Each structure stands twice: as structure tokens, then as C-alpha cells.
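Sequence in, structure out.
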Amino acid sequence: MTLPREHPVARSFIDTHYRQIRLLIVLWMTAVLLGAFSFGGHWLNIPRISILEHTARNLYFHVPMWFTMMALTVVSAWHSMRCLRSGDAVRDIRARSAAQVAVVFGLLGLLTGSVWAHYTWYEGTSIWWNFDPKQTMATVQVLIYGAYFALRSALDDSAKRARISAVYNVFAFATVPFLLYVLPRQMESLHPGAEGNPAFSEITHPLMRLVFYPAVIGFIGVGWLLYHQRVRARKLEQQLENRQYTPL
């Protein structure tokens, strides 16, 4: 027999499971940070790369943030599609929460990218932004999801807001692979992997992958934790508004 999520036993199991996953992610990210910033030990010392030097360590943060954003847009779009099929308000909450955290990681990706560009391509200048195709496309992507929240705030009826924003969210997700991967690779860019440039994997040492791949997993885990917390917070808000328990 399967217990409903609102049952005390089920809730206790879910909370315990969540705390275990949270602890695992915290320990995982601690190991990632130690690996990213350690200057001791041959296997942790990254090889010197022309121009990048030790700023290459930003690979462990900048790129995983975009992977995390993309993963969260998948979650958001999935719940939007389920919301359109079922009209379930909980799906709308989950779609919105995932999109919120995705935008946060998108902004962090833009910030770390701008800083990285300044201290590599434009060191010694006052340039922090040059409208490189990848920078521009990533900014457009974040703005598209920003418009998602503007649309939601413009609609008062909750059912109508859920339906219309879900449709927009699905179309917004359809732009993700094109704006963050396909189009930038077809244009001249200073970024690795663009037209005429080798991929980052071709100019970095394989040792860096020992930290990079765990960093991708870890940041996606952090994104999941933040998403889960947003859903839980919205659940509490809903309980206060309706004075009744609504399982998520």
C-alpha cells in the first residue's frame, strides 16, 4: 500500500530522505571546492594554459552553472507541460520554482563569464563586456526567462496565469539549445568551441576533468536543493493563504 504524501509517516520519510541528499551534496561540493582551489599535490595542480593561467579554475564554476541552468529549464518545462495536461496548480508552482533557480544560475554564469573574460582576454583594460556571441546569446536566454516572470505578474487569475505561462515556458525552453549551444558555435567568438576555435577539452589538461565533472554534478545538486526549497517555501505560503494543507 502506498501512503499519500500528506501522511505523517510518508512526510517523515521524505524529510529524512531530503536531509540525507542535502548532506551528500554538501560533502560533495566541499570536495569539489577543495579540488578546485588546492595548489598542493601534483594531481590537483592544473597545468599552466596560455593566457588562462590559473583563471582556468573558473571552468569548475562558470560552465557548471550553465549546465545547472539548462537542467532546471528541463524540469521547469516538464512541469509546465504536465500543468497544461492536468491543470494541476502544483505543477505550476514547480515550473515557476525551477525557472526561478534557473535564472539565478544564468545570472551567475553571466557574472563569472564577464569576470573571466576581463582577466584573460582584456587584462589591463577596462573592458568587462564585449558582446561576444556567447555572452549575447546567454543574455538573451536569461531575458527570455525574465519575461516569463513578467508575464506571470501581469495575470491576476491563477488558472489563466498557470495556462498561459506554461505555454510560454515550453516555447522558452525550446530556445535553450539554440541560444546556448547551436547558434554561438556557428559564429566567430573568442570562446572555445566556436567557429575557428578548438573546444575547451582540446586545450585543457585531462587532470582538470577530475574536478570539472564532479563540479557539474555538484552544482546541479545545489540547483536541485534550491529548487526544492523554493517549492517547500511556496507550500508554506499556500498553507497560510488557504489555512489548509496542500500536498506538493
